[in-house]
């Protein structure tokens, strides 16, 4: 045993096994006539590794494991695997009686261990969210790894806030070459122990707060939220019928998936690379959930429209209070010279005939012709932003619009109310997550990209795009994929409604004043705008009408969806503002603090790079250390090693280097390459 900050930590199998009891088994309820679900050992297990990485070699040298609060720190892979295999026998773990082991950012451990695990335990079932990013790994011996990063959707430091063993400040010095035989000093040892103990405490806290056990705990943060919303829908057959009516067929799904888009993030093209004085900012309060609470959404069975509908029909459907999603053929597209926001993204176009000089930061300024995927909310923006010679709806479908079912809306409103009135309570953090995640739960594709991995001398991935996946599905399979899910159209419509509301805000502020906008906020030059206050009064009236007003204990009313002044006490919220392109701007607040947002650069690193001079944000700015790491994957077969005190094995590894950033160069937020 080794003492670590008051904890007794096992350093051998015998010591560790002596600390463990025998956990009970639990099982999630199954529907009538359904195949029984697997049983799970109801004990929380966490796992982490520490690694040494060079350009020519990489391996794990520590395999810290926490089971039920007991921690062991094996130094050799074989020693750790032997402990797990002993537990498989001792606890009678099988494919139908499983043990879950949580790993924070499983993709990292996966690279180092998957080849050796498959060599010992056979092939595994896996679900990949991206290449090299497994959500889970299930082996036939009953061992199941899950990614706790997907469960919390936050860093380990943030996930363990408030736990006894919060993540220790400062990382290990990864430049030090350590092996399984390198003694770990007290600081290094505590770092290893703390990570798995803190994660264990965070998961235990989550299980206790939400009344989960090993069988019922969802795999992802989104699934947590879905379960919470479904509590409000239980027994509401009418709502379930409404959701089922919005199921899409193959063609509708293809069009909708291609039309789905995120937030509108851009800046006025003739204002880029200039510094503006005396600026202000508005920010919508809970933009996405406000759309779902306040405005009308798709309902009823979507109906395909005959091909070749002219613009007059497209506009008439909107004026009749209906909505549509379509593939539109446009000729002679031209941005209006006074319009600051070219709302058409290159990524939403097919067969785009447009020169590079007629593009602005991924947006289309002019095009001879294109096929555009959008919905009727986006069309209202497009009509005002562009002129065109000819518009025809190539393919599309329409639907009625109505308010979302009350049970679904109240699930959102209940969480919003807790977020606004119970800050600091255990329910506050989860309610905040729910409010911001329900939209994401609606926006999930039910037919997705699929990844398969071949594990051998290297780790080889194949990707099947959602388009090919959709082609291969039968109509029955497409229908089944949507069963019990929130309608995708609700997610698509939420995002496009937010874009439309932001567009309306830009117009209220004035096209001649707006500088930069991002999803739910708008930065502009000059004084605050009285017209925005009038807009807020109209939104407040809609909140009253829809019964979604929050009253705080002090009597103050909170209205979701209003455009809030980010600095209400100051005439000008920003004394300086400057942007270069999307997700790249700096602002000096009225308090004198120079803040920066540069995609791919940490907040602290960006602030340091500017050296308190906003003019330093320019195309020549080079940030040597942008925060975080670039990952380079080095695939290697399993090799037997004789360079340690004991024979051991290693395989693939990751080379990590500090991440730099060139503001005017070709940057990626994360760079991942395969070496060898």
Q: What features would you describe in this structure?
A:
Among the domains are: 2-22 and 38-219, Nucleotidyltransferase, domain 5 (2-Layer Sandwich); 630-675, no CATH class. Helix 7 (221-233) crosses helix 13 (406-421). The strands form ten sheets. Strands 3, 4, 5, 6, 7, 8, 9, 10 and 11 form a nine-stranded mixed sheet that branches. By secondary structure, it is α+β, with helices and mostly antiparallel strands. It has 19 helices and 39 strands. A hairpin with a 2-residue loop joins strand 6 (58-67) and strand 7. It starts with a strand and ends with a strand. It is 33% helix and 31% strand.
Q: Compute the CA-based radius of gyration.
A: 27 Å
Mean pLDDT: 93
Number of helical regions: 19
**Poorly predicted runs:** 666-676
Shape: globular
Residue fraction in strands? 25-35%
**Relevant CATH superfamily of the domain at 2-22 and 38-219:** Ribonuclease H-like superfamily/Ribonuclease H
Give the proportion of residues in helices.
25-40%
Can you count the beta strands? 39
Instruction: Give the biggest beta sheet.
Output: 9 strands, mixed
What's the CATH topology label of the domain at 2-22 and 38-219?
A: Nucleotidyltransferase, domain 5
Supply the helix-strand structural class. Answer: alpha+beta
What oligomeric arrangement do these chains adopt?
single chain
Alpha-carbon distance between the termini? 41 Å
Please report the first level of CATH classification, the CATH class of the domain at 2-22 and 38-219. Answer: Alpha Beta
> Would you identify the CATH architecture of the domain at 2-22 and 38-219?
2-Layer Sandwich
